[in-house]
Design brief:
By secondary structure, the chain is mainly α. The protein contains five helices and no strands.
């Protein structure tokens, strides 16, 4: 990563932009489930169950990849010192 990109990625402004994006996408995701009053949904209420199940599928797949991987996914994570004596792979698997 170039120094200009690295300094931009670690700036306070970029951090706030990231959190604004997280908040905005969360609001867009949850809007069909929890409608603001007096809005009316164009989807039937039962459609929220498959909507949420399919949305959770990506979390489950990511957790399975992290838990059952035979190598550390992020190489930079391997270089971080561990406080409890776990290896990077054990720590990744337990957090998956």
């Amino acid at each position: 990563m170039s120094p200009a990109l690295r300094s931009g990625a670690t700036s306070d402004l970029w951090h706030h932009v990231e959190h604004t994006c997280f908040f905005a996408t969360a609001m867009l995701f949850w809007r069909p489930v929890i409608l603001p009053w007096p809005a009316h949904s164009s989807w039937p209420r039962w459609a929220m169950i498959p909507y949420l199940v399919l949305a959770d599928l990506q979390n489950s797949v990511l957790a399975a990849i992290l838990t059952f991987s035979d190598r550390v996914i992020y190489s930079a994570y391997d270089a971080v010192p561990r406080a409890q004596g776990f290896s990077a792979l054990e720590d990744q698997a337990s957090r998956g």
